[in-house]
């Protein structure tokens, strides 16, 4: 009997936790464990620890499988990383940093950087091929118009996987920043201005109330009534 200590960490963003069921399978050089349930409740920024019992030593742990299935309602989960301690004390780290949505199984390789030629095991070669095929499916290109750079072959960003879309946290922060800057510009007299600027010194006086670096980015997308 071999016992492996497993620690699963959830991301610290507000919606990272889940009430869906999460289980794990350890895959080693000599075999793999049974699918073991971790929990049905994950809180943001918290860790869950468990023991995975196997009938034999699995050898070096090369990858893990995280299984997610919903009980009633869909509740996406953001997995930060997984750490596995073997019976001999060897620690294996599996950086995940991705959302798991719906009923799905995600395979995560051990965190050591390796090239294609380093994959001696057939299971690692197959995993690399599946990962490449999934990326080719996710990042399909099309020509928007003649002479334009190529773009993703989707009609809406909502067709993209959550791990490809712009971070929801960043999007909220960006929206809040725009509202704050819009209010600042309105109060400083920048918005709704009907006359031209008298001089650059006048502009510097107004913009000195906010951060020049951020305002500079704003000026690139807002036409100004120069003399």
TrEMBL record:
InterPro entries: LipOase (IPR000907), LipOase_C (IPR013819), LipOase_C_sf (IPR036226), LipOase_mml (IPR001885), PLAT/LH2_dom (IPR001024), PLAT/LH2_dom_sf (IPR036392), PLAT_LOX_verte (IPR042062)
One MF annotation (Gene Ontology) recorded for this entry: oxidoreductase activity, acting on single donors with incorporation of molecular oxygen, incorporation of two atoms of oxygen
Essential for stabilizing binding to COTL1 (site feature) positions: 99
Record domain Lipoxygenase: where: 114-227
Keywords associated with the record: Calcium, Cytoplasm, Dioxygenase, Isomerase, Lipid metabolism, Metal-binding, Oxidoreductase
UniProt feature coiled coil, ranges: none
CDD domains: PLAT_LOX
Top-level lineage group: Eukaryota
Residues that hold Ca(2+) according to the record: 17, 75-76
Family annotation (Gene3D superfamilies): Lipoxygenase-1, Domain 5 (1.20.245.10), PLAT/LH2 domain (2.60.60.20)
SMART domains for this protein: LH2 (SM00308)
Ranges for domain PLAT: 2-114
Pathway note: Lipid metabolism
GO biological process: lipid oxidation
Subcellular location: Cytoplasm
Protein name from the UniProt record: LOXE3 isomerase
Gene source species: Pheucticus melanocephalus
């Amino acid at each position: 009997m071999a016992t492996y200590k497993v620690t699963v960490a959830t991301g610290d963003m507000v919606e990272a936790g889940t009430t869906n069921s999460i289980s794990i399978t350890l895959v080693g050089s000599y075999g793999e464990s049974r699918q073991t349930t971790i929990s049905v409740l994950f809180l943001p920024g918290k860790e869950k620890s468990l023991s995975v019992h196997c009938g034999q030593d699995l050898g070096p742990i090369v990858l893990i499988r995280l299984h997610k299935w919903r009980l009633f309602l869909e509740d996406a989960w953001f997995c930060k990383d997984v750490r596995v301690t073997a019976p001999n004390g060897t620690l294996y780290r599996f950086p995940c940093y991705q959302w798991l949505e719906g009923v799905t199984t995600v395979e995560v390789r051990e965190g050591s950087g390796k090239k294609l030629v380093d994959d001696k095991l057939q299971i690692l070669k197959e995993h690399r091929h599946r990962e490449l095929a999934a990326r080719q499916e996710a990042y399909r290109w099309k020509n928007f118009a003649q002479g334009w750079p190529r773009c993703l072959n989707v009609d809406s960003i909502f067709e993209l996987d959550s791990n490809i879309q712009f971070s929801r946290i960043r999007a909220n922060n960006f929206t809040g920043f725009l509202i704050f800057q819009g209010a600042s510009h309105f109060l400083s007299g920048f918005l709704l201005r009907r006359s031209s600027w008298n001089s650059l010194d006048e502009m510097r006086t107004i913009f000195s109330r906010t951060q020049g670096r951020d305002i500079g980015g704003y000026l690139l997308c807002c036409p100004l009534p120069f003399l």
